[in-house]
Amino acid sequence: MLSIEVFAGQVLTTDVFNATRKRFIVQTADQILTNQTTPIPTEIVIPVEAGATYVYECLVSLSAVADSDSALAFNWNVPTGTLLARFTHAYDATSATSLNSGAEIIQRRPANTTLQIAGGSDASSPPSNFHSAVDRGTIAVGGVSGNVILEIQQSGAGSANETILRGGNQTRAIVERIL
User: Is the dihedral of CA 59, 1, 114, 90 positive or negative?
Assistant: First the structure.
């Protein structure tokens, strides 16, 4: 937890106190991808301040066909000099098992812009099964404030099959400033 030093005569503002509160960021609408092989921004946007450090957990909900070109691929677009220590878990891109029988997962420690692949289990498009992926870690901001933005695309060569980042009460991020 971030501690706040208070000095005699110092005026505290709500901004100072709010900087230490957890923030909850929600993807409000589904984002449907077809033939999308370049990253596009989502509604998961984390404002960050120069020199600060944050801890985050991004809970990704998706639907996709069990095919490597239909899997969801995600990464972060960050301000210059910002480093993420990412720890990710996601469903394998080609697991064609039933929804509740378990499957191989991918556990990675990718860099900021390295795509994490998260697969689905549907046999046809549009996909209707909901899957999850988790991306958690820390954000160490360099000398430039800005936004850390979750970006998505289809993996591999892309596909005419729909790949869906789920919105509403599905995809969200929880962020807290710790330094």
Answer: negative
Would you list the domain boundaries of the chain?
A: 30-177
Amino acid at 29: A
**CA angle, corner 117, sides to 116 and 120, nearest 5?**
145
Q: Report the C-alpha gap between 103 and 94 in whole angstroms.
A: 10
Instruction: Give tens-digit pLDDT for 21-34.
Output: 899 999 999 999 99
DSSP 65: B
Please write the tens of the pLDDT for every residue from 159-175.
999 999 999 989 999 99
Contacts with 150 (C-beta within 8 Å, 6 or more apart), sequence order: 41, 42, 44, 45, 58, 60, 74, 75, 76, 173
CA distance 43 to 61: 13
Instruction: For residue range 4-21, list pLDDT tens digits in order.
Output: 666 777 776 776 666 678
Tokens of 67: 């095919």
